[in-house]
Design brief:
Layout (H helix, E strand, L loop, with lengths): L33 H25 L11 H26 L5 H25 L9 H12 L7 H17 L8 H4 L16 H20 L2 H7 L6 H11 L1 H22 L7 H14 L4 H17 L3 H5 L10 H13 L1
Helix pairs in contact: 1-2, 1-9, 1-10, 2-4, 2-7, 3-4, 4-7, 5-7, 11-12, 12-14
Length: 341
């Protein structure tokens, strides 16, 4: 899932050359904006709490589907939106007067490199649901796209962000279902991944963050933010420290959390989990991308009943048989599709 603000730039730069066009640009603040570090740190802590719930579910301490449905699903989306919004803010603060190629390339290289590392690690750990376009991939891609919006008027950038959010709600096409195109976000069947953050709609909050920051710069609001002292308590200092080192926090927090949950499972193992609810939840999630909720409930109930009645449920969920290796599986899907119409 979701981490962010990883295009870290809570302070502006002075003495930057105007590399695109000649229109005068608003001055960026010279002081670091501590409240942005604080906001980024709070978002990171929120992300860690969500991932902790995911880890508890993975080890069987929470019911299957807990972290991907209901309030926790909304929580995860709010966290992702906040990270991408803050990343858009950072891009404008760092490069609003003109792109500094070396600094931008270094930051993109770090984020993209970390994204590639996560893809590689999850490919070996969970090859069926590895992270091929997660939050880091989305931030890197959005940062590159965002360069085209650095000099556009703030209202136009905000409007573009809103359109990015709206387009997937009104248009999808099967042509975007293959993995090499699904990252765009216009698929009809979502790919399997433990953290999938497609460019659409998630470019939306990034561009909105850019537009809001340009408007704030033109009105001198960033100088006021830079003047705010967010407190000097140990908690506030720790939060700002994590916000300033968000990429390191993102890369390290999950191994730490997984290790803690694993250690707890050795001392107090969870109650064995019934795989049936997880199977039904996953089936309905995949089905709902292109069908009504009522249809998906009927279809997934039918598939579950057929698999159980034929003694195929355990072999299927354990991976002993698949729809590619056993012709009975697609036959059941076809039968249940017809019965559920």
């Amino acid at each position: 899932m979701e981490a962010g603000g990883l295009a870290d730039a809570s302070h502006g730069e002075t003495g930057l050359s105007d590399t695109v066009g000649t229109a005068p640009q608003p001055q960026t603040p010279t002081r670091r904006i501590d409240v942005l570090d604080l906001a980024r740190g709070l978002a990171l802590f929120a992300m860690a709490t969500y991932h902790f719930s995911w880890d508890l579910e993975l080890f069987g301490y929470l019911d299957p589907g807990t972290s991907t449905h209901g309030p926790l699903k909304l929580y995860a989306r709010a966290i992702a939106a906040s990270f991408l919004f803050l990343a858009g803010v950072s891009l404008v603060l760092a490069h609003g007067k003109g792109v500094r190629p070396s600094a931008f390339a270094k930051r993109i290289g770090m984020v993209a490199g970390a994204a590639a590392l996560i893809s590689l690690a999850t490919y070996f750990a969970t090859p069926d649901s590895f992270i091929f376009f997660g939050i880091l991939h989305a931030i890197a891609a959005a940062s590159i796209v965002g360069l085209a919006f650095l000099r556009l008027p703030a209202p136009l950038t905000v409007l573009s962000g809103i359109l990015c959010i709206a387009v997937p709600l009104v248009y999808r096409n099967e042509a975007f279902n293959p993995a090499w195109l699904s990252w765009i976000g216009l698929f009809t069947v979502p790919p399997r991944s433990n953290d999938f953050v497609p460019l659409l709609p998630w470019l939306g909050p990034f561009l909105i963050g850019m537009g809001v920051t340009r408007a704030a710069l033109s009105r001198g609001l960033t100088e006021r933010l830079a003047a705010i002292e967010p407190g000097d308590s140990p908690v506030a200092r720790a939060t700002r420290f994590c916000g300033r080192h968000s990429l390191a926090f993102y890369l390290l927090h999950q191994p730490v959390l997984l290790s803690l949950v694993w250690a707890a499972s050795q001392v107090a193992p969870p109650t064995p989990v019934d795989p049936l609810p997880a199977f039904v939840a996953e089936c309905e999630t995949g089905c709902s991308a292109n069908n009504s909720a009522a249809f998906c409930q009927r279809f997934c109930g039918c598939v579950t009943d057929e698999l159980l009645s034929r003694g195929l449920f355990q072999p299927y969920v354990s991976g002993q048989i698949t729809q590619e290796t056993d012709a009975r599986i697609p036959a059941i899907a076809e039968q249940c599709t017809a019965q559920s119409r």
